[in-house]
Design a protein that fits this description.
This protein has 505 residues and is α+β, with helices and mostly antiparallel strands. It has 13 helices and 21 strands. Bound molecules: flavin-adenine dinucleotide (FAD). InterPro entries: FAD-bd, FAD/NAD-bd_sf, Phe_hydrox_C_dim_dom, PHOX_C_sf, RIFMO-like, Thioredoxin-like_sf.
């Protein structure tokens, strides 16, 4: 942090030291690279050729066509569907896909009378509108975007610069104008600079202001903002001006067919990097529900407290996000157990790939008592039943080879006395040879994960040390029950039956 030419302090914002995540650091990526990485992933996903983005198509209209209401011979025709009109210019800016490759821009404001368009009508079961803060879809289906627009404008620039400010870290500069300037190092000698550019006048519109924002104007503003430090533009790759909105769509779903996601659904300050991330979460959470096609939403039963057991502390109640932690495979011998290099992994690594239910089975330190052959038999019986009853129809591949909707994992706490227990216990040894997701058992070192999930070992407080946690496909706790006996599995079965509808092929 620099103030009037002097370094006044350092805040370690890029090293967060947070324990519960593998990603305990900040990371800056150019928008261009983010887009390229995402597009590459899409192309590599899927069973055959993957998903390709077609650039240059503009959505002009969309509507839900109501179905006949059932009773007809052709069920498909009886269901409602989405009809969307899209167009692509046959001449002009949008005809060259290369030009739109990186940002996927649609030239919505460049309609010219002499322009010719190719028009198509697309029929689909669903439409997910990720068309940004000014969402055409949101306007077309008339969903409000309540909230407020903050009165300040900010300039954002990417390019090469000459400056006496050391810029290998994020630098916040307050100079003579008191307009905060932030410098962020990017790759290839590029730097991102954002500067507060003062309040918008009551009559000023950001689209008009954008037309007057030039590189020389930005350079003057930057020089004033960092004075007495120096700043000179060498080259520019991007310059824009924006104001901050804090808004949320009044509803995210239209007639159960059209969904809003990302900035189309909610928009806020870019500080903290939560814009794109919340958008991903929308899409991820929506995708599993649409892929499975049979979730009941009544009374929000996706999260359900146990009907009779006491409600646990807030950190591990149903509805909270699954916490992460370090786990390791069962050591095969004493040497393995004492080895500092024995391969550890994070709990969250078990949940990567397409969305599935993950059943975590926590044993107590007294494994002899809680992890009996009968316990394992109940587990296998129930999981097998569920896998037959509820079928996952997604066609995407991930680290798991099958398309089961359910994966399950045993976790057993370690203590100084448990190494020999691991080696001598036949059940543990057998489970340690299972495939990941098929009931493989892991060691929870010092019971840290047990504590995070409310199964404190050593019988502390009033919780028993063994139990089952059902993580929903969006990695939130949907259900939890103490105990591993048959009744506990019946409780889980009841929970799943209440939120999932049996699939009919
Ligand atoms: C200056 C700034 C800095 C930011 N920094 C960060 C950050 O560091 N981290 C972070 O997570 N977020 C950041 N954000 C927020 C982030 O950019 C957005 O939250 C994110 O891009 C939203 O993604 P989206 O796909 O929902 O919408 P968008 O990225 O807006 O994408 C919408 C797309 O739809 C297209 N489109 C629009 N209308 C139509 C139509 N009718 N037909 C066809 N296509 C259409 C648009 O061309 C566009 O490609 C920042 C935002 C700003 C403005």
């Amino acid at each position: 942090m620099h103030e009037r030419g002097k370094k006044v302090g350092t805040l370690p914002v890029m090293e967060m030291g947070v324990e519960d995540t593998e990603f305990n650091y900040g990371w800056f990526l150019e928008q261009e690279r983010t887009c390229m990485l995402l597009r590459k992933m899409l192309e590599e996903e899927g069973e055959e050729e993957g998903v390709r983005v077609e650039f240059g198509w503009e959505l002009v209209d969309t509507r839900v066509v109501e179905g006949g209401g059932g009773g007809g011979e052709n069920v498909e025709e009886e269901e409602s569907y989405v009809e969307t009109v899209i167009r692509r210019a046959l001449s002009g800016d949008n005809t060259n896909s290369e030009e739109n490759l990186l940002l996927g821009g649609v030239d919505m404001y460049a309609e010219q009378e002499d322009k010719e368009y190719e028009i198509q009508t697309v029929r689909s079961k669903y439409l997910i509108a990720c068309d940004g803060g000014r969402s055409t879809v949101r306007h077309r289906v008339n969903i409000g975007f309540s909230g407020r627009t903050l009165g300040h404008k900010t300039l954002m620039w990417d390019g090469e610069c000459e400056t006496d400010i050391v810029s290998s870290d994020i630098t916040s500069i307050t100079g003579s104008t008191n307009n905060t300037m932030i410098m962020i190092p990017l790759s290839n000698n590029l730097t991102r600079v954002s500067i507060e550019a003062g309040p918008l006048s009551p009559t000023e519109s950001i689209s008009e202001t954008l037309k007057t924002v030039t590189v020389p104007y930005f350079e003057i503003l930057a020089q004033q903002a960092c004075y007495p430090s120096t700043f000179k533009v060498k080259s520019t790759t991007w310059l824009t001006c924006f104001k901050i909105n804090e808004r949320r769509a009044d509803q995210f779903v239209y007639k159960n067919r059209i969904f809003l996601a990302g900035d189309a659904a909610h928009i806020h300050s870019p500080a903290g990097g939560q814009g794109l991330n919340t958008g991903f979460q929308d899409a991820h959470n929506l995708a599993w529900k649409l892929a499975f096609l049979g979730v009941r939403y009544q009374e929000n039963t996706l999260n359900r407290p146990h009907p009779s057991q006491p409600v646990p502390a807030v950190d591990y109640q149903v509805g909270v996000r699954a916490q992460d932690g370090v786990i390791s495979p069962i050591p095969q011998d004493e040497k393995d157990a004492s080895s500092s290099t024995s391969s550890t992994l994070r709990l969250h690594q078990l949940f990567t790939g397409i969305a599935r239910f993950h059943i975590l089975i926590f044993t107590s330190t007294n494994v002899e008592q809680t992890l009996t052959p009968a316990t394992v038999a109940h587990t296998m019986r129930f999981i097998t039943q569920w896998r037959h009853k509820w079928i996952y129809k997604s066609s995407l591949n991930d680290g798991y080879v099958d398309k089961d909707l359910f994966k399950f994992h045993f976790l057993t706490p370690s203590s100084t006395t448990t190494t020999s227990t691991f080696a001598n216990n036949k059940v543990i040894q057998e489970l340690s040879n299972h495939q990941i997701g098929e009931g493989k058992i892991f060691v929870d070192n010092d019971g840290k994960v047990h504590k995070k999930y409310g199964f404190a070992p050593n019988g502390s407080d009033d919780v028993s040390a063994a139990g089952i946690v059902v993580l929903r496909p969006d990695s939130h706790i949907g259900y939890r029950v103490h105990g591993l006996e048959e009744q506990a599995w019946k409780d889980v079965d009841q929970y799943l039956s209440s939120i999932l509808t049996a699939q009919v092929e």
